Amino acid sequence: MLKKCVFSLVYLLPIHLYAAQVDVLREQAIQNYRAGQTQQAVSQLDQLLNKYPHDQKLLADYLFIMSSEKRDLTNFSRFLVNINYVDFPEYAKLPLIQNFRDFKHFKTAIDWSNKFNIQKSVDGRILLSVLYAEAQDVANAKDQLSKIDIKGLTADQLVRVAYAYRLINLPVDALATVEHAYQQQTKSSSVLQEYVYDLIAIGSYKKAQQLLQASEKTE
């Protein structure tokens, strides 16, 4: 029995050493990036990924940095194929999808959203609703929006929901939603902008103009 335990410890030791070593090197690269040494950080992570291509934290941090550097992540397919949808770190999922969205790869963003099951969180469902709306997939956008309870949402979240409603030509719903956001933050530029767009969408040009004039007086 003792021999079996010793064998197990010896067998597992290299695995734990590997994990600890990789984490230390990965964290060093992240520290270099935060210190402004971008090229060095990218080079370090790239070298680590050549050795450990399936390490999910390495993949997450590398792709996160590439996204922060405004790189189109669809060009990094050799890394994307190694992502494990279950084990990939939560902190990197939405930024990955947001990158696809920023580069107008809406269908790709939707595909990854469903792979990651992002709709399990409020922000994830809102993002998926917006993606469907931007892809002009009206049926799925409506379906996702119908599952969002606007009670308790922040002004920023409400603005995104209103934006999605407006894109799928539901201006009344958009206006009703953004009004809740305006009640929370009357001086927010993003709230004001969406409010004006939604008023214009229903033909309320005079009120939109009055809103803009009122905001200019308070600046």
Number of helices: 12
CATH architecture of the largest domain: Alpha Horseshoe
Strand content: under 5%
- The span between the termini is 77 Å
Give the number of DSSP strands: 0
The CATH class of the largest domain is identified as: Mainly Alpha
Keywords: Signal
Organism: Acinetobacter baumannii
Protein name: Tetratricopeptide repeat protein
InterPro entries: TPR-like_helical_dom_sf
Write the layout of secondary structure elements.
Layout: H1 2-34, H2 38-51, H3 56-68, H4 77-80, H5 90-102, H6 106-116, H7 122-134, H8 138-146, H9 155-167, H10 171-184, H11 189-201, H12 205-218
Helix pairs in contact: 1-2, 1-3, 2-3, 3-5, 5-6, 6-7, 7-8, 7-9, 9-10, 9-11, 10-11, 11-12
Explain what you see:
The protein has helices at residues 2-34, 38-51, 56-68, 77-80, 90-102, 106-116, 122-134, 138-146, 155-167, 171-184, 189-201, 205-218. It has 219 residues and is mainly α. The chain has 3 domains: 13-71; 90-147, no CATH class; 149-219, Serine Threonine Protein Phosphatase 5, Tetratricopeptide repeat (Alpha Horseshoe). The radius of gyration is 23 Å and the shape is elongated. The N and C termini lie far apart (77 Å). The model is unreliable at 2-13 (pLDDT under 50).
